[in-house]
Specification:
single chain; mainly alpha; flat
């Protein structure tokens, strides 16, 4: 089940990358990683 979810997530992000561009998605992923790191470190 986890593999299915991961596969769907990968497919979804690839679909969005095609629509808005790879550079935009890379920036989004970097921003989300920064946000997650800041939430994990109080």
């Amino acid at each position: 089940m986890a593999n299915l979810l991961k596969g769907m997530q990968t497919w979804f992000f690839e679909l969005i990358e095609d629509a808005v561009g790879e550079k935009t998605m890379r920036k989004y992923k970097e921003e989300m990683e920064k946000k997650n790191k800041s939430q994990n470190n109080p």
